[in-house]
Amino acid sequence: MNTADQYVKAIYLLQQMEDGPASTGDLADRLEVSPASANEMIGKLESRGLAEHEKYKGVTLTDDGIVRARDALQTYCIIERFLANVLSVEEFRTEARELEPVIDDLVAERLDTIIDRNPECPDCFDPETDACCHLDLAERAEVGEQRAD
Amino acid sequence: MSVGHQVDSDHQLARLLQIGIVLEEVVEARSYHHYQSLDDARLDPEIESLLEHAAEESAEHRERLEDLIDQLDAESVPFEQIEALVEAQYGSTEPDDFDDVLYDQLCNEETAYKFYDDLVGALRASDATFGIDRDRLVDVLVGIREEEADGVEAVTRIMNNRS
Asked: How many domains does chain A have?
């Protein structure tokens, strides 16, 4: 998944959580990049017609941006589901974030042939828990993470 | 989330190699299923040979990846596990005819090529030290990638001849 896709996905999820535009600061925090880097990429997304930025309010995806974000989220769901259900990775959220930049959509589609993904995907993705709500291990992993804290 | 395309730890590398193994296992299992799904009267020697070669090559790639994973002290993914998953999902994606079989094989080869190409690119972009010799690692992956490229060519050639 390329960098632009990671940004539109993050904006999409922040917009869902905020029920409004995503702030540049929240976006930078979520992606663990500097605000300057986030601003630079927002400018690129605007020039590609994927997002609109309003000063003091934040970033909003355009219709094209939403389509792209949902595709990216679907790819991310496949990676999470594959890690959790096929490889039984307990820290599947952390690992999915690490692997996301290196796994291409084409590869995710092939992995999708062996996972039982819900037809409503990516609406199944819960931005608060950062996981698919139908994921078999979601509950167990969450308990594990809480214990680790 | 780290934004970028780098591989910087043994753990991440091992996980990516595991994904490579799973992709090879998917090819192997699907080739076998395609072969089984075509009855004797419909078997085409050219496609039969293609599927046989694809399954053999994937098994061989898997062994090379397993050898790398062993050196990283990580575990492989049992073929039986992936075969069962392919079987469980196969009904909904079963190809109807030869064209579908060829198209599926093309997707397999293209996907594998893209995976190894991205992985080699990410390794070359990273200056991390791994618990395995980097040159050898890249050589193995480049070798597999080139065989996947040959596979794409072979399927495309058959598709063109049949159209």
From this structure: 2
Task: Name the residue among B75, B76, B77, B72 with its Cα closest to residue B10.
Answer: B72
A121 touches chain B (CB under 8 A): no
Residue of B nearest to A10 (CA): B1
Q: Any residues with CB less than 8 A from the CB of A17 and at least 6 apart, and which? A: A127, A128
pLDDT tens digits, B111-145: 999 999 989 988 888 888 888 999 999 999 999 99
Exposure b/e, A113-137, CB count within 10 A at least 16 = b: bbbebeeebbebbbbeebbbebbeb
Find, among B25, B19, B70, the residue nearest to A100 by Cα: B19
Query: Are A109 and B108 within 8 A, CB to CB?
Result: no
- Residue B5, domain member (yes or no): no
Q: Are A54 and A21 spatial neighbours (Cβ–Cβ below 8 Å)? A: yes
Q: Which of A38, A66, A94 is the last residue of a domain?
A: A66
User: Distance between CA atoms of B45 and A76, rounded to whole angstroms?
Assistant: 40
Q: Is A27 exposed, middle or buried (0-12, 13-18, 19+ CB in 10 A)?
A: buried
Structural domain boundaries enclosing B124 = 10-162
- The position carrying tokens 């409004």 is A20
Q: What is the pLDDT of residues B73-83, one digit of tens each?
A: 777 788 788 88
**Domain residues for A99?**
73-148
Can you name the residues that pair with A51 across neighbouring β-strands?
A: A61
Beta bridge partners of A126: A131
CA dist., res. B58 & res. B34, Å (int):
15
Is the Cβ pair B86, A6 closer than 8 Å?
Answer: no
Q: Are A96 and A80 in contact (CB under 8 A)?
A: yes
Q: How far is A29 from chain B (nearest CA, A)?
A: 9
Q: What H or E segment, with its residue span, contains residue A52?
A: strand A51-54
